[in-house]
Amino acid sequence: MQLCVFNGSPRGRKGNTSIILESFLRGFTTSPGNSSDIYYLNRVKETETHVRAFKDAEAVLLAHPLYTDAMPALVKAFIEELQPLVGRENNPPIGFLVQSGFVEAAHSRHVERYWEKFSRRMGSPYLGMMIRGGCEPMHRDQSKYKKVLESFYELGRVFGETGQFDDEIVRKLAGPEQLDGITRAIVKLVWRIMGNPYWDDWMKENEAFKESFAQPYTD
């Protein structure tokens, strides 16, 4: 199988999406004859090349981080360029991978439904979607994600052999759909007391820290 991969991370090669794809594709290429080409959607000047790659692909994998319960703008811009191919005969089957900083899989379910609908509109067989949360620190220390990356490797290996995502591996990778009530209450309390250094530093840099708990729609 020749797999056409689109990396929709604004960070390109430096993002967590790239790390996950590397493990998946290592597994995928263990099957003789399998190969892949990766296109980085943050190279916006190469959009025409990206569209041609989709048009000529045997199978497609579109991967991106979750941005406000959807996808980065550069991913949306890319799929809008595919409009001339809507309903074309022999559009390639397409699968999706979405990773996020949120632990709960529920945050990604909206975009999962979006991509399934997108596949139907394109006339592309829908291969399914891989979801993984809690990924934001991955690029800082991959060793803490060894088991997760091993699971993506195995998922890629199975996909390379069957052309399908293994439902059980996908389910395990997704993690908890939602945290239980007690855990959510503890997390809220800890964040209220200790804050979140990652976002706090960003807000301080942009002089917005004082608005951390603003509730403009309740005023």
Molecular structure report:
The structure is a single chain. This protein is of the alpha/beta class and 219 residues long. The chain has two domains: 2-174, Flavodoxin domain (Rossmann fold, 3-Layer(aba) Sandwich); 181-218, no CATH class. The protein is built from eight helices and five strands, in the order E-H-E-H-E-H-E-H-E-H-H-H-H. The protein has helices at 16-28, 47-56, 73-80, 109-122, 146-162, 167-174, 181-194, 197-205; strands spanning 2-7, 35-40, 59-65, 94-99, 126-132. Strands 2-1-3-4-5 form a five-stranded parallel sheet, sandwiched between helices.
What is the helical fraction, as a range of percent?
40-55%
Q: Supply the helix-strand structural class.
A: alpha/beta
Query: Helices and strands, in N-to-C order?
Result: EHEHEHEHEHHHH
Proportion of residues in β-strands: 5-15%
CATH class of the largest domain: Alpha Beta
CATH architecture of the largest domain: 3-Layer(aba) Sandwich
- As for the number of domains, it is 2
Distance between the termini: 57 Å
Q: Mean of the pLDDT scores?
A: 91
According to CATH, the fold-level topology of the largest domain is Rossmann fold
